[in-house]
């Protein structure tokens, strides 16, 4: 992940002029994904993976409707999620409570995604996520140069 820091004025200008594929202002800070590098990578046949919230997902799907394979990762239970957050021992209890409230809001949007993986077992969840991404990549419309390749068969 590469971060490129901009002033808030630059960020707001980028958002207003459509230079960001998805963006949000959270706690007074701007977060977003520049559109041009993503579009260039997709045109070159590369895949892009984003770790974004449901609102970012909506923005990306709206901007690139034919290029989005979405995946929502659910915890096995809210109790397990809270246990995982607590066991890290890196957050204050107030922060954990805030994260749990945010998680409940995020989880309410699971049905807006193409696929859902329950992260009960990390290795299994990774296997399932890779399978989903591989299947998305193998869709006919996502395979760059496929038409030219098939054309070499004389068909």
Mind sketching the topology for me?
Blueprint: H1 8-16, E1 20-26, E2 29-34, H2 35-43, H3 54-63, E3 71-74, H4 78-87, H5 93-107, E4 115-118, H6 122-137, H7 146-151
Helix pairs in contact: 4-5
Describe the structure.
This is Guanylate kinase. 48% of the residues lie in helices and 14% in strands. It is α+β, with helices and mostly antiparallel strands. The chain has two domains: 1-49, Guanylate Kinase phosphate binding domain, CATH 3.30.63.10; 69-140, Rossmann fold. A two-stranded antiparallel ribbon has the order 1-2. A hairpin with a 2-residue loop joins β1 (20-26) and β2 (29-34). α4 (78-87) packs antiparallel against α5. The longest helix is centred in the last third of the chain and has 16 residues, at 122-137. It is flat, with a radius of gyration of 19 Å. The chain starts with 7 loop residues before the first helix and ends with a helix.
